[in-house]
Amino acid sequence: MELSRASWQRLTRTREVPALQDNALTWEDFRLVKAVADARGMPGAAALLGLSLSTIFRRLGQIEAALGTTLFERRRAGYAPTPAGEEMVAVANGMDEQASGFARKVAGREILPAGEVRIATADALFVHLLAPLCARFQATCPDIRLDIAVGNPPLNLSKRDADIAIRATDTPPENLVGRRAARLGWALYGRAADFPDSTRLPDSEALTTRRWVGLDDSAMPIPVAKFTRARVAEANLVLRANTVLGLAEAIGAGIGLGYLPCFVGDVRPSLLRLGAPDERFAADLWLLTHPDLRHSPRIRILLDFLAAELSRLRPLLEGNGRRP
């Protein structure tokens, strides 16, 4: 379990690590050893902790001298913990988990809906759905500040990488709690200018011979990405993007046909839907948080607001209508 740089910085504000006193180990010592193990070397640990390389080198030597044992072996692939080093890293993991758990529980005991809420979501969801909802929410709850983390990498809500995750998935993480807000439909789109008679569209076989765009290998777990790679000839798949917004821009530019979530494709005048939503590619939209935070007033009021607003937009999300 790797600690993010933000997690490290939350746990300490010091820039230099004090010397050992009477051979007593401190959290700073465990933190430094953990950083070297995570980064597999001293330069990476120095960057992670915001310390100089010479400080990391000197401090690790002091820790090893105090313990009377070597904590790392230098190999071609980097620094590898010795058995003693692995034990120290395991203790550091436990200490960090306890600190993170304490912070979550304290955050969950708020009385008034005020403070900051960090939301993690994908680019298309934020641009096409959440940005206007966030504006309406803050008009009604001005004491709550929103911090938006846009992207698709996995997040660890246990480490407070985010307070709320808004994700399209049929398998939400078992360690989180939340609610299913809607079902997201996907359909095939092309540039509207390339199909002047929308009442006489080519059949599906003819469409597969055209130029296509699709999601890249980072999205291969998504059914629509695997389907596109399997159905369209490699020579016809002329562009791959790592985000849905990038895919939408490519289709609108006339580079090729491609599948999009209906809430993205249906609101773009430059795009034309070429068929009904395909249930094989649909996915649930989840509002997720950590169990320790679900009773926090600021978390609960935001989840309730988003659930109500997204429910109102279900026809658009499912592909059965346009934005109200």
What would the keywords be for this entry?
324 residues; Arc Repressor Mutant, subunit A; 3-stranded antiparallel sheet; globular
What's the helix and strand layout?
Layout: H1 5-11, H2 27-39, H3 42-49, H4 53-67, E1 72-75, E2 78-81, H5 83-107, E3 115-121, H6 123-140, E4 144-150, E5 164-168, E6 177-184, E7 186-191, H7 204-207, E8 212-215, H8 223-231, E9 237-241, H9 244-252, E10 258-261, H10 262-265, E11 271-273, E12 283-289, H11 297-312, H12 314-318
Parallel strand pairs: 3-4, 3-5, 8-9
Antiparallel strand pairs: 1-2, 5-12, 6-12, 7-10, 7-11
Helix pairs in contact: 2-3, 2-5, 3-4, 6-11
Structure write-up:
This protein has 324 residues and is an alpha/beta fold. It has 3 domains: 5-107, Winged helix-like DNA-binding domain superfamily/Winged helix DNA-binding domain (Arc Repressor Mutant, subunit A, Orthogonal Bundle); 115-184 and 283-318, 3-Layer(aba) Sandwich (D-Maltodextrin-Binding Protein, domain 2), CATH 3.40.190; 186-281, Periplasmic binding protein-like II (D-Maltodextrin-Binding Protein, domain 2, 3-Layer(aba) Sandwich), CATH 3.40.190.10. Helices cover 41% and strands 20% of the residues. The chain has 12 helices and 12 strands. It has helices at 5-11, 27-39, 42-49, 53-67, 83-107, 123-140, 204-207, 223-231, 244-252, 262-265, 297-312, 314-318; strands at 72-75, 78-81, 115-121, 144-150, 164-168, 177-184, 186-191, 212-215, 237-241, 258-261, 271-273, 283-289. The strands form 4 sheets. It has a 5-stranded mixed sheet with strand order 4-3-5-12-6. Strands 10-7-11 form a 3-stranded antiparallel sheet. β1 and β2 form a beta hairpin. α2 packs across α3 (42-49) and α6 (123-140) crosses α11. It is globular and about 80 Å long. 34% of the residues are buried. Residues 1-19 have low confidence and may be disordered.
